[in-house]
Design goal:
Helices cover about 35% and strands about 20% of the residues. The radius of gyration is 19 Å and the shape is globular. It comes from Methylobacterium soli. This is Methyltransferase domain-containing protein.
């Protein structure tokens, strides 16, 4: 695991106030669960969740899909613990601390559904990660991912440009690049919807990023205090609102591979 990914994991470990600050995480997870419930899935699908956080998508899926076996994973053990507490005595759930970019699964059958809500934006190689996850699907299986696309935090970026500086927030891929992904044996569709979030002021926005573990910059030095104050004034003059460009990626593995894959097991890879 890279030093940056380790920093991300530590940030999420420390996100004790995550649920209170996760203004868009819950509605995005609910919307993804609704999309998934409309897919052609087996009666009791085998499910893998990547980046469960505190369990918004876990709970939404269990409320809408018949309870098949479900493996719930997150890079941060503390998040897994909070998800486990949220789910209580729900049956047929297993929990595993795992980096979704580097799945460590031992002898698992292919999954009918792999789902992830607002975790894939932390992947260092998103196309490679989605390709790897798609290979874990059973024939006809679905990979359903809600992630962030270009245009996210546009208001925050505009406030920085007004001062001639660049924001430390990550650069997210354009929707067209996501739609152009070519995953062998799979079809890919992508849709993008804006989700707006309002804050009392700029400091509240920054505090919300820290509270959800999202204050980890990609090695950029923080702005000088005076420059940050001016950026915050520009941001607040625009209403202290931010937009998340939420991309929903639906990937389906061809059912024609059934004869080849019906008895295939996932490779035996140990967690480090």
């Amino acid at each position: 695991m890279s030093s940056w990914k380790q920093a991300v994991a530590r940030a999420f470990e420390g996100a004790e106030t995550y649920d209170r600050a996760a203004g868009i995480q819950r509605p995005v997870a609910e919307a993804l669960a609704v999309r998934i419930a409309g897919l052609a899935l087996p009666a009791r699908p085998r499910i893998l969740e990547i980046g469960c956080g505190t369990g918004f998508l876990t709970a939404a899926l269990r409320a809408r899909i018949a309870a098949g076996p479900m493996l719930v994973t997150d890079i941060a053990p503390g998040m897994l613990a909070r998800c486990r507490a949220r789910m209580g005595a729900a049956e047929r759930l297993r929990f595993l601390a795992m980096d979704g970019e580097r799945p460590c699964l031992s002898g698992e059958p292919g999954f009918d559904l792999i789902a992830s809500s607002l975790a894939a934006q932390w992947f260092e190689d998103l196309p490679g990660a989605l390709a790897g996850l798609s290979r874990l699907l059973a024939p006809g299986g679905w990979l359903a991912v809600a992630t962030l696309a270009d245009g996210t935090f546009a208001e925050w970026a505009r406030a920085h440009r007004a001062e001639g500086v660049a924001p430390a927030t990550p650069r997210y891929p354009p929707a067209a690049r996501l739609a152009d992904l070519r995953l062998p044996g799979c079809t890919v569709s992508v849709s993008v919807a804006p989700v707006a979030e309002a804050h009392p002021d700029g400091h509240a926005f920054l505090a919300s990023l820290r509270a959800i573990g999202a204050g980890t910059s990609a090695g950029r030095a923080p702005l000088p205090a005076g420059t940050l104050r001016r950026v915050l004034r520009h941001f607040e003059a625009g209403g202290a609102r931010v937009t998340y460009a939420v991309a929903t990626c639906l990937v389906q593995r061809s059912a024609d591979q059934a004869a080849e894959m019906s008895t295939r097991m996932l490779p035996r890879v140990a967690c480090e």
